[in-house]
Write a structure and sequence with these properties.
There is one protein chain. The chain is mainly α. The protein is 69% helix and 0% strand.
């Protein structure tokens, strides 16, 4: 087992990934996963509702983003709070020793429609979690929705780059770079269209 997964959820995720690669997703059962991990079926269901969920962290990413937004400095604007959360995600979850596993996981997801659909739903949940976290900081609803959606876009760009075999940068700096690019793209659009932020609506 990899060093970053000494606990039951990590062992189950590693076992599931191995089996999905060896046998295919459709030919792997919950019992297979539990047995490969050296655990029981009841232990599996204490952590995950089904075999699809085992590769999605059980809400860990969303929880870390919510915590990161909540702990951002009070004066931080909405996007800056999201950026702080992405930094924290890079330090605690998307670490260097997880990169190889994450690349293998993404290959399995890309090969199975059911898992891609689950991933798309998870990203919607991720956005909703960030919106709620921003609401708790007192961010107006429209601004929170825009910041969270941009945050999800930044996460997707940074994650894809982090998984690139030719890249060696950490997730946090990649997220900061992606955020700068998204902001620059938005500024360029404003210049072309003459659109200006509503007072108090920026980050």
């Amino acid at each position: 087992m990899a060093r970053w997964q000494p606990d039951a959820p990590g062992r189950l995720a590693a076992a599931a990934l191995d089996l999905f690669e060896e046998r295919g997703y459709e030919n792997t059962t919950v019992i297979d996963i539990a047995e490969r991990a050296g655990l029981t079926k009841s232990t599996f269901f204490r952590h995950f509702p089904d075999k699809r969920e085992v590769l999605f962290g059980g809400g860990t990413v969303a929880g870390l983003l919510v915590e990161g937004i909540a702990s951002a400095p009070p004066a931080a604007g909405p996007l800056d709070a999201v950026a702080d959360a992405l930094d924290a995600l890079g330090r605690t979850f998307f670490t260097a020793d997880r990169r190889e596993f994450s690349g293998r996981r993404q290959a399995v997801l890309n090969a199975h429609t059911e898992l891609r659909e689950r991933e798309a739903l998870k990203r919607i949940d991720l956005t909703a979690s960030m919106i709620e976290a921003l609401h708790r900081r007192g961010v107006p609803d429209l601004t929170a929705r825009v910041a969270a959606r941009l945050g999800t876009l930044v996460w997707e760009i940074a994650y894809d780059r982090w998984l690139d075999a030719d890249n060696s940068e950490d997730f946090g700096p990649l997220a900061r770079q992606a955020l700068a690019e998204v902001r620059a793209a938005g500024a360029g659009r404003q210049e072309r269209t003459g659109f200006k932020d509503h007072p108090g609506g920026g980050s």
